[in-house]
Batch of 2 targets.
Target 1
Amino acid sequence: MKEISRFRKFLLMVLFLVTQLGTVLAQQSMDAVLPPDPSVKIGKLPNGLTYYIRSNKMPENKVELRLVINAGSINEDDDQLGLAHMAEHMAFNGTKNFKKNEIVSFLQDIGVGFGNDLNAYTSFDETVYMLPIPTDKPGNLEKGFQVLEDWAHQVTYLDEDIETERAIILEESRLGKGAQDRMMRQIYPALFAGSKYAVRLPIGSEQVIKSFKPDVIRRFYKDWYRPNLMAVLVVGDVEPAMAEQLIRKHFEGLKNPANERKRETVKIPGYLKEEAIVVTDKEATGYSITLNYPISSAEEDKTVGGYRRNLVRQLFSSMLNQRLQELAQQANPPFVGAGAGYGAFVRGHENFRAVAVVGTGDIKKGLEALTTELERVNKFGFTASELDRAKKSMLSSMERSYNNRDKTESQVWVDEYVRNFLTGETIPGIEKEFALVKELVPGISLEELNATVKNALAKVHWQKTINWYMLPVLNQMQTPVYLHQLICWQS
Ligand SMILES: [Zn+2]
C-alpha cells in the first residue's frame, strides 16, 4: 500500500515535471526569434549604413538597387512643410558627378522613367530611391552605384534649380496625382487628427513651397540624409562579393553630421471619438467605403509566437473575405468587391479595417451589407468547416510559394528587405515559413479564432456612427452626385 502510494506520488511528480517542461519548451519556442533568410546578407558599415545583398537570377542581367532613407515628411520642421518631397525631386536636378541632363539620359538609357516620383517616393516616414539596372552593358552597375551615392550625399541644390522646382511642386500640389491622391489629402488630416501626422502631409504647404529660402531645404538634406538612417539594397544577377565591394567603395566615406538630430517616432493618440467623413472628387470613378477600427501600436512579429499570431489573423481575414466575396457574387450584389483585415497604419501602428468598393451602385446598400456582415461575425463567429477550408487554402498557397521559390523576382525580394529595414517586418525565408505554417496551422482552434474576432470587432457598432455622421451628408447629395469616398473611424 505504502509502496503504491509512493509510486503514485513519484508518477504525479514526473507528470508534473513533464507538463512543466512541456510548457517551458513551448514557451521558449514561441519566444524564439526568427532569424533572417540566410540567402540575404545583411551588414552594417562603421558609419551605421545598413546594407542588404542577395544574388537572384530572376530575371537575368538585372540588378535592383535601392537607396532608402529612414526619414520623410514627419521629420520636417515647421518651416519645411513639403521639403522632404521636394528633396526627393532635387535628386534629379543634378549632383556632383551628374549634371541634370546626364542623370536623365542615364535613366532613359537603362529604361526607367525619371524624376517626379517615377522611381522615387516620399512618404511620412521614409524616402526611397529605386534603380533597376540592366547589367548587359558593362559599366551600368558601377554608374548606378555612383548615382545612388550622389543621391545619398552629393545632390547640388543650386539656387536656380530650387527655383525651377518650386513651380513643379506647386503644380503637383494643386493637381495632385489624381482623384485618389486628392481625396487622401482630405482624409489624412481627419484620420490622424491630434497627432503630428495630421500636419505633416508629404505634399506640405503651398505657402512654404512658394517662399522658403534655399538653405531651408539644404538643412533638411543635411539633417536627415545621413548614413545611420540609410540602407543600400542590392538584389539581382550579381556576385555578392562584388556588390559588397561596390557598397564599401561608394558608401564607407559618408559621414554623419556633428550634433545629429534625434530621429523621432510619432505616436498616434488613438481616436477620441467616433466620426465619419465623406470626401468627393469630380474625377473619382466610384464609391468606396472604409471602416477603421481602433488603432493600436503595431505588435512585434519577430518571434515564432508573433508569426503564429499573424497566421491567426490571416485565417480570420481569409474567412471573412470569403463571406464578403460570396456577397459580391450574388445576383444584384451590394458591392463590387469588399475586403477586411489587419493592416499597417502609419509607422508603428496597426488596425483592423474593412473596405467595400461600391462602384456606381447604391452606397447605402453597400454600407448596410458590409456592416451587417461584420456584426454577424462579431456575434456568431465562424464555423468549423469555414476554418477547415481556410487552413487548407493557406497551406496550399504556402506550398505553391515554396515550390516556386526559385522563380521569385528580384523586385519582390528587394521590396521585402525595404520593409525589413524600415519596419522590422520579419524575413525568415520561404523554407522556414513553409515549415512554420505546417507546424503551427493545425494547432489553431476555432475557439482561438473566434476569440480573436471578438478582440478585433467587439464594442464597435457602426450604425450610430453612420446615422449621425454619414447619412445626413448622403441624404443631402444631389443626383447626379460627385463620387465619394466614405471613411468612418471609432475609438
Ligand atoms: Zn512629386
Note: The radius of gyration is 26 Å.
Target 2
Amino acid sequence: MAREVLEVLSPRPGTLQVDGTVGAGGHALLLAGSIGRTGHLVALDRDPEMLEQARRRLTEGLNEEERPKMTFAAQTYEQLPHVLREQADGRPADGVLLDLGVNSMQLDDPGRGFSFLREGPLDARFDRTAGGRTAADLLNTAPEKDIENWLRTYGDERHARRIARAVVRRRAEKPLHTTTELAELVRACYPPAQRHGRIDPATRTFQAVRIAVNDELGTVERGVKECLGVLAPGGTLAVLTFHSGEDRIVKHLFRSASTPPEEPDNPYSVRSEVEPDFELVSRKPLSPTTEEAERNPRARSARLRAIRRKEVRTDGG
Ligand SMILES: C[S@@+](CC[C@H](N)C(=O)[O-])C[C@H]1O[C@@H](n2cnc3c(N)ncnc32)[C@H](O)[C@@H]1O
C-alpha cells in the first residue's frame, strides 16, 4: 500500500519523516526521495539485521544530491522520543510510519525461526542481540493455558486447546527445538480432511507464537502513544497492520486521541469542551485495492489508519 502511505503522509521537502519499522527500506526509500536534501529521515528497526539491509538500500538507492540526512537506530519504535532527542535535537516529526509485523526477508531466513516452511531453530525474536526468550523457551515452559490463550487470541486458532495440550504432552517427553517439529505437531492436531488446504495449519500457530515472543500487541499499545507524542503540529502518524488484534488497538488509541476527554468528575460521562489535539485522517481504515490483494496475498489483511496533530490556531479561537 505504498501509494496510500505516501498519500496520507504527503512528505514535503525539508520535513522530518520517521520510518519506525524500516524493514527492507521500501517505504523509507519513497519517503527519503520526497523530502530531498534538506529533509531528515529517521529509520528504526528492532532487528539490527534488517536495519543494515535498509541502510544499504537507502544509501545505494539515492544519489548524493537527492539524499536527505539519514539516521538509523536499532531500536523499537517505543523508543522514538529518545531517538529524536539524541539524533535530531528533539525536533518533532512531520510524519511517522509504522508498518507492523514481519518482513519477507525474515520469513525466508530459516535461521530466524519465523517460518514453518523451512527447518530452523524455534526462535522468532526480532532482536536476537537483546537476549530475551525464544519461541522454544516459551513453548517448553509456559503453562498450557497461556499457550492456548496465545493461539486463540493472537492466531484465531480454532484448535488452540488441542494444540496447547499436544505441546505440553510432547515437551514432557522431549522439548521442542525446531520449526518443523512444531509445524508437524500442529498439523497432526488438525482433522485429516483439513490438513491439506490452501493455508498450512501451522500458519496461525507460527503467527501467534511470534506475536507472543515479541510482545507485539503490548508494543503497539505503548509505542503508538509514544509516536503520537512526538508529532509536530500538522504531523501525521500512519499505521499499517496485518492482524485484527493490532488494528483494534490502533483504532481505539486513535479514537481516544481524537475525541474530547471525558470530564473527570462528571458521573454521566459528559465530554469536556476541550478540543482534542488530534484528528483522524479518515474515519475508516484504508484497505488494499483488489488488484494489490491479488498480486500480494500478504496485503489482503492490511489496514492503514492515520491520525494528524492539529495545526496550532493563530486566530485566538
Ligand atoms: C513489515 S516489515 C516493514 C517493511 C518496510 N515498510 C519496507 O518497506 O520494507 C516490519 C519490520 O518491523 C520490524 N519491527 C517489528 N517490531 C518492531 C518494533 N517494535 N520496533 C521497530 N521495528 C520493529 C521488523 O523487524 C520488520 O523489519
Note: The domain at 127-213 is CATH 1.10.150.170 (DNA polymerase; domain 1).
